[in-house]
Amino acid sequence: MTQCYYKSDYYVNCLDFHPAGNILTCGSINGDIEIFKLDELKNELVKEWSNSTTHSNSVRISTFSSSGSEIMSASADKTVAVTDVDLNKVKWVGKGHKDPVNSACYINDNLIITGDDEGEIRIWDNRIKSKAVSVIKEFEDCITDLLIKGNEFLVTCGDQIGCFDAKKYKMKAISDNTEHEFLTMSLVKDGKKVLCGTATGSICLFSYGYWGDFNDIIPVNKETVNKIVKLNEDVVCTCGDDGEVYVVDVLPNRVIGKLKDFKGSNDVKSTDSITINDNKTLIAFLVNFEYIHITDTTEVEKLVRNEETNFFDEI
Questions:
Q1: pTM higher than 0.90 for the full model?
Q2: Residue 271 has pLDDT above 80, yes or no
Q3: Mean pLDDT estimate for the chain
Q4: Residue 311 pLDDT > 60, yes or no?
Q5: C-alpha distances in angstroms, 26 versus 46, 73, 275?
Q6: Which residues form the signal peptide (predicted)?
Q7: What is the CATH superfamily name and number for domain 3-314?
Q8: 127 burial type by CB count under 10 A (0-12 exposed, 13-18 middle, 19+ buried)
């Protein structure tokens, strides 16, 4: 069973798996972007390279392009950048945000969406100069997450979720005020359901295209749901400020259980930025923002199998 801890020299904000290998990128509070590779024989993370020139302040987003050849990063220094993975060289930098950039995602390998701490959204084309191709000012609070689906992208800000046209960059719909502060999103059920993790430890479920109000809510913990990662179309894993990693079933809605093997003798106070590799065999997440932890999905699969057995026993 894979259990691997790596202690970073600086607090780490974000993680992402390479789309075709057991390679991780992370962004640190000091502005570094780093790449790690899992040595499966030694069961340890090996640092491949570090880049301290792309950003001058905390890196909040560091994610691979769909090909894995580039890393897109966004920072509290108010910029978004693209770095060549093989060359460890900055290819493009987007400047224009007046406030720290908090969230970012690809529309495709050329178009990028960013959202900052004061609600401004910008769309960039990394083939051209650093000026944004569009600026959206529909919000006045921190953009907590961005997610692309086909020709639309979703935005969470405060207690609302908005849906935008990804070609015209115009708002199509926005939810009512929900009294739940949304921190993160994930698509499940073949894109038919949107999960929103909240600052009060629950997951709100929206039916895609019906943005007035959420349909259901899953209580997960008493703290926060900081990040959600999809194991399959029915099961997700969450991390949060209570230091746990939960396995959650969606429709029927229930918490299946939580991971225990990763803790060992460590004092785990928080988990964050959970991500899963391309073949769904490894999960990585941050522990206390200073440790990168990788575990295989054996424990998750065991919890899911036990839940399915119990379900059919009750029929």
A1: yes
A2: yes
A3: 94
A4: no
A5: 13, 9, 11
A6: none
A7: YVTN repeat-like/Quinoprotein amine dehydrogenase (2.130.10.10)
A8: exposed
